[in-house]
Specification:
alpha/beta; ornithine cyclodeaminase, domain 1; Rossmann fold; ten-stranded mixed beta sheet; 25% strand; globular
């Protein structure tokens, strides 16, 4: 069994490789050769009165890579007054996200993979697949909200599927957006301009991407130009006005237990993720409420790929790709490919597989 750290994954996984791995995974799903379990969270109280512990898990299989992946994450989360979600594991600045890979041929534990770099890559690549399917072929300008790691992978991925000539980026901290613009201009050879407000970034853009940790909508639907394509990292960034403005809405797939399903003990909070929650009624008041924009269920990527939904049918339509769903499948496809490449290059730290086996039947 291999331990693959973020540096190992980064050395084998570039954006074209990530996009191709996802295309393989979705081809398996379309053929009935892949499956996934949506994300479900569990919240537990901590010793403090201003945060919560959150555990999340999602699982999927991909026949082409012969693996099952389960991704697990352990966070202390809080929601400060500035309207963001903050999280950490052990202490601010450290995190714990793990992907466990198993062989679907004989059940063998194959790898334990740090999820940080791969997580950012697979989300950006998913958004790019949505752009490729729904954005106009001649889309060449991008309005980008956010200047962190997700914003970087969104820009890299979208640049793989459309010939961008101009990017305008906004994030609340001037130094961050200017640094981002300079670094990404140099990295991609693109004109990336830092602008002073979200409206300037969005107005007139052929593609709009919001890649932030905001708990509330990040853009006004009135800023979105006819014919534009919009994509997001989380449903929290979307407002009802944008959902009403969009002519075509497609989502990756099922992201969690759909809102309102009759499952004893399940609740839905900010972002719409289904969760089991421990704590008193007073404790639970700290959790952000789910909004109507978090709850919609729309035609899926599979519906478009298999011709059950037409997707974009006219140049002037506004399309929206909700980049939520099929997470377990994505981790199986991308981590499965990363494991293949890591083995070819002799990367990772090996552990005896026997450590992860036992002779007591469960």
């Amino acid at each position: 069994m291999l331990l693959l750290r973020n540096a190992d994954v980064q050395s084998v996984l570039d954006m074209p490789t990530t996009i191709e791995a996802l295309r393989v995974g979705y081809a398996d799903l379309a053929a009935g050769e892949a499956a996934y379990i949506p994300r479900i969270d569990l919240y537990a109280t901590t010793s403090r009165d201003d945060d919560y512990y959150r555990w999340g898990s999602m699982t999927g299989s991909c026949r082409s890579y012969g693996v099952l992946a389960t991704r697990i994450k352990s966070d202390v989360v809080s929601w400060p007054a500035d309207g963001t979600e903050e999280k950490y594991c052990v202490e601010p600045g450290t995190y714990s996200g793990i992907i466990l890979l198993y062989s679907t041929d004989n059940g063998e534990p194959l790898a334990l993979v740090q999820d940080g770099y791969l997580q950012h890559m697979r989300v950006g690549a998913s958004a790019a697949i949505g752009v490729d399917i729904l954005a106009r072929e001649d889309a060449s300008t991008l309005g980008l909200l956010g200047s962190g790691g997700m914003a970087q992978t969104y820009l890299e991925a979208i640049a793989e599927v459309r010939a961008l000539r101009m990017v305008r980026v906004f994030s609340p901290t001037s130094a961050n957006r200017r640094r981002f613009a300079a670094e990404m201009s140099a990295k991609l050879g693109l004109a990336v301009e830092a602008v002073d407000d979200a409206e300037t970034a969005v107005r007139g853009a052929d593609i709009v991407a919001t890649a932030t940790d905001a708990m509330a909508p990040t853009l006004d639907a009135g800023w979105v130009a006819p014919g534009a394509h919009v994509t997001c990292v989380t449903r929290r960034e979307l407002g009802m006005e944008l959902l009403e403005r969009a002519d075509v809405i497609v989502q990756l797939g099922v992201g969690t237990v759909p809102h309102g399903v009759d499952m004893p003990g399940i609740s839905w909070f900010g972002g719409g993720m289904a969760a089991y929650v421990a704590g008193s009624p007073q404790d639970r008041e700290r959790l952000p409420a789910s909004r109507a924009a978090d709850r919609g269920v729309y035609p899926s990527l599979m519906d478009v790929m298999k011709g059950r939904h037409p997707g974009r049918t006219a140049a002037e339509q506004v399309t929206l790709f909700v980049t939520i769903g099929t997470q377990g499948l994505q981790f199986a496809a991308v981590a499965g490919r990363a494991l293949q490449l890591a083995r070819e290059r002799g990367l990772g730290q090996a552990f005896p597989t026997e450590w992860f086996l036992e002779d007591i039947r469960d």
